[in-house]
């Protein structure tokens, strides 16, 4: 009896170690290969790991004298119950497969979905990992992600920077446009496309101008913040007022 217990323990340990080694070697080989898309690698790693450990469990069961056919038969009987209790997991699994087929984004893309946004770090069997600009990690279930609208900011390699500025009614249109043009020329990373500078609204205390320029996706935030600072500095130099909300009361006599 003691011998059987030791033999069983050794079989379990050896099989699990072999399984772990196989998974580790596969992951290393997967990292080196360039034939598989980076986006697909995380999903493949998760799938292979699940398959290898399932086979390991089957081998252990066989060595312990448990009928594999009995296990498979039991699994088939329980499959309906498992499917009902694991609807969310299955939804996430098929959601991951859907995204890998439709390819709405890839690893390192900057996306927005479900009210969250960030850089895609990886797509696993059941969830997708995002990293936000402030270095937080967001985990979104694949099922939810495959059933919502996804905005991919990296797909074309370029992003448009939109800035709205409220300017005093006393400022001349020509002066405002000239000042904003100076700002565009002073900021590094703005592409040479013709910029958009137009009046887009007449507010209670200001005239709203909209400035639009194009930049590379990776330069978006630098260009955005540099333009915001440049506009304030240039308006101060050109004596263009950025008004705050105010109410003018005329006393009629």
Question: What tags apply to this protein structure?
Answer:
alpha+beta; 7 helices; 253 residues; 3-stranded antiparallel β-sheet; elongated; 51% helix
How far is the N terminus from the C terminus?
111 Å
| Count of helix runs | 7
Which structural class do the helices and strands define?
A: alpha+beta
Shape field: elongated
The H-and-E topology, N to C, reads as HHHHEEEEHEEHEEH
The biggest beta sheet, please? 5 strands, antiparallel
Name the average pLDDT: 81
Question: Which residues form runs of ≥5 with pLDDT under 50?
Answer: none
Task: Tally the beta strands.
Answer: 8
Widest sheet, order of strands: 4-3-2-1-5
What is the rounded Rg?
A: 30 Å
Helical amount among residues, as a percent range? 40-55%
Which percent band covers the strand fraction?
Answer: 15-25%
């Amino acid at each position: 009896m003691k011998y059987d217990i030791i033999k069983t323990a050794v079989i379990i340990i050896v099989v699990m170690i072999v399984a772990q080694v196989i998974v580790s070697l596969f992951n290393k080989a997967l990292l080196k290969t360039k034939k598989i898309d980076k986006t697909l690698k995380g999903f493949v790693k998760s799938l292979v790991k699940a398959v290898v450990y399932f086979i390991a469990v089957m081998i252990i069961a066989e060595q312990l004298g448990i009928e594999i056919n009995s296990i498979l038969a039991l699994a088939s009987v329980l499959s309906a119950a498992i499917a009902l209790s694991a609807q969310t997991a299955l939804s996430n699994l098929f959601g991951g497969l859907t995204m890998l087929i439709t390819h709405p984004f890839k690893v390192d893309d900057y996306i927005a979905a479900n009210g969250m946004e960030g850089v895609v770090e990886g797509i696993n069997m059941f969830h997708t990992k995002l990293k936000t600009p402030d270095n937080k990690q967001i985990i979104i279930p694949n099922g939810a992600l495959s059933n919502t609208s996804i905005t991919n900011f990296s797909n074309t390699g370029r992003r448009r920077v939109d800035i709205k500025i409220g300017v005093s009614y006393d400022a001349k249109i020509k002066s405002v446009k000239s000042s904003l043009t100076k700002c565009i020329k002073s900021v590094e990373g703005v592409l040479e496309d013709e910029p958009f500078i137009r009046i887009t609204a007449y507010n209670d205390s200001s005239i709203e101008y909209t400035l639009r320029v194009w930049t590379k996706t990776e330069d978006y935030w630098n260009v955005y913040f540099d333009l915001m600072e440049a506009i304030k500095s240039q308006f101060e130099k050109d004596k263009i007022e950025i008004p705050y909300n105010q109410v003018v009361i005329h006393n009629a006599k």
